[in-house]
Specification:
By secondary structure, this protein is mainly beta. It has a domain at 20-114: Immunoglobulin-like. The protein is 0% helix and 45% strand. It contains no helices and ten strands. Strands 1, 2, 3, 4, 5, 6, 7 and 8 form an eight-stranded mixed β-sheet that branches.
């Protein structure tokens, strides 16, 4: 049996939600004490948005990924990571949330000069058949073994 038309009937009467326009500004920001502090964007809202809670899923970023977000007053600080390439990268931003339309007051792209970190000068010394000593390693450095070259 083959039907060409399907009719849906919903039990609830849906009410259309009024869409609120919210204006915001986007600026390049810097947080000196953070590891990714030089790759941050500050989103400043023109009006007070305390009743709106934005999550990382509400921010759509092009050419990078959001590592974490922080809320400070009516502003949000986005920490970016995993850029598309090294060098000059234009990062685009959109904000989406149901019932709201977010409008840019200024540009919607921010440029970053993404730099590659230097390869550490680490040396491995063998103490015995089952022990080694690493020199030139800082406290926060991560390392791995059995995955090819370091």
């Amino acid at each position: 049996m083959n039907y060409k038309k399907i009719r849906y009937q919903f039990a609830n009467n849906f009410k259309f939600q009024k869409i609120n326009d919210i204006k915001f500004n986007v600026h390049k920001h810097s947080v000196p004490k953070e590891i990714l502090g030089e790759y941050t964007i500050k989103v400043s809202f023109v009006e007070d948005i305390n009743n709106i809670n934005l999550l990382p899923e509400n921010f759509k970023v092009k050419n990078a990924m959001i590592k974490k977000i922080e809320k400070s007053g009516k502003d949000y600080i986005l920490y970016l990571d995993n850029f598309e390439k090294y060098g000059n990268v234009d990062v685009g931003l959109e904000i989406k949330k149901q019932g709201y339309k977010f409008i840019f007051n200024n540009q919607h792209k921010v440029s970053f000069d993404v730099k590659k970190h230097q390869t550490p000068k680490v040396k491995v010394y063998a103490n015995g058949p089952k022990s080694i000593v690493l020199s030139g390693v800082s406290e926060k450095m991560e390392y791995r073994n059995n995955f090819g070259k370091w």
